[in-house]
Fold this protein.
Amino acid sequence: MTFLQPILLAGLPLVALPILIHLINRWRHRKVEWGAMMFLLDAKRLTRGMAKLRFWLIMAMRMLAIAALLFAFARPLTSGWLGLAIGGQVETTIILLDRSASMEQTDLNSRVSKRQAALSQLSSMLENTGSGSRLVLIESVDNVAREIDPGQPLNELLDTSPTATSSDIPGMLETALEYVTANLTGRTDIWICSDLREHDWNVNDGRWATAREKFQPLEGVKFFLLSYAERASDNLAVRIENVQKRGAKGEQEVQFDVVLQREGDSLAPQSVPCELVINGVRSTFNMELSGDSALLQGHRIPIEDELAGGWGRVDIPADENLIDNTSYFVFSDSPVHRTVIVYEDAQVADALRIAATAPLDAGISYEAQLIEANRAEEVELENVSLLIWQAELPDGVLSDQIQAFVRSGRPALFFPPDRGGDNAIFDFQWGEWQESAGAEPHRVTTWRRESDLLADTSSGEPIGLGDLRTDAYRKLVGEPGRVLAQLDDGSPLLLRVTNSDGPAYFWTTLPVWGKSSLAQDGVALYVSLQRALTIGAEAQSQSRSVDAGSPDAKAIENWQPLDESLNAVLLSQRWMNAGAYSLGERQIALVRPAAEDLAAVLDADQVNGLFNGLDFRHVEQQAGSSGALTSEVWRAVLTVMVLAMLMEAFLCLPERKESVPT
């Protein structure tokens, strides 16, 4: 239990006053021996046991009344386990706030979102208990530690407003660790507010182990998780994918896919009305939904020939989360999907060329240029969508050119060479080849299905990696990286570099016989290359889509909104919310990250495992809950005092004498 006026507890020794008064009263009376008293003393001995019990009960009630009065004046706070957990003087309070799109799920009765509920309950707790000398906010969009005014309600801060972004909880913990170690924060409470979505927590990320190892030696640091893991009872999310402008003169059209995801208790069939806006012109269409998802593939809308590009938006009716009811898109003429393959092995190059030029869409032109490793200096990257490198890693000027290529938003895929490996790029270099040596080939145990090159299809079908054989792979030395596919011995099969400002990937095996079945099975290789090509082509296009809250989204600061409704959005908040903007002939659509539409959440065992070895408490809440994290209980303590006084008065009543017959 904690107290708002703990100094008054120094008066607890006053509880001994009843006993002290009793002793003083005994000293005031002189003892006089009187012969006739022997008969009375003999009679009293018969009732001495009950008298002692009565005496001590009276003393206990008097002492309890005094103690309760002192506790009431000290203004105790409690909330179940929290009264015990937050005892002690806090010097610094750090709040890690998840501002992802899924945190805008709203309770239908109170109309309060998970984010608002978390902020309100934290504000109430801080008002009651104080935040110490410092209150620090780390929110998921900028992931920067900012000291804020403890007197201002958290819900009124611009840095706590809703967004259409995703979160990186391990990254936020790293920021908190840096702040704690750099500022000597003393006794520190770290509050994490989140809805426990799996993609935000990324439990397999190596940063969790590092954070635990570095937090454990720090004394006085406590972790509190304020979670809102309740799933929506009925919520739909809409997304637009694969947008293309196509057709000959007089037959120009925009083609796109519409994806609906449903989260809720009922999966009954329903017809969902969708409102479509293209360049300000509105129309409607219906989608039939059965199960938890629906896909309207290749929806076509005619447009005027003179339009070189444009923008659009699809809206669905309001439900529990307004953030995921809108999806923006932009369109223009598709550039050529051009791939450059630098190779050491001609057989590998041929397999990669086939996968990169097999048309995914008949309306797009595909080209591939093959360059032998000894001519790598001839690479021209100006009009290239995708670079595939199967040779000794580049160094010097060529390495700088490739890193600039990646920073422009166009992917580079690296495959291992047969030999060599001293050079490094993006802080990675090749290690030794690992052969299965006649044993069973390695199998893929896990892969990231929610996003990136190996994500599930729009219809929710996973890419088949379970049957993929890997007979040999090459060790990859370096960090940090995000493993997109992992082999059964824990080594990565496909890894994305995380210390670059663009998409760079490493495959650790080759699509040839004796190395893997990537070429024979074909699906994973083909899909990953085609998706990488799409990313690169979008980076080249006059129109492209980027995730809200991503580094690329910050470029829109001086861009003009294409949708009039976006004029109401503050300039500083545009890059973290969905919208469509233009600068000259260039257009950009900010979209909600695809992983935000996935409803999977962590269970209690997973959460506890992430904080194993740390001082950790988990508070589970609901968006509609009106309960506070802390509350004053002095009224209850005064009630105890009154009851104690009444009991003491009852015990002090004189005993009823029974008449004795004469």
Notes: Residues 79-87 have pLDDT under 50 and may be disordered. The first helix runs from residue 17 to 28. The chain is about 25% helix and 30% strand.
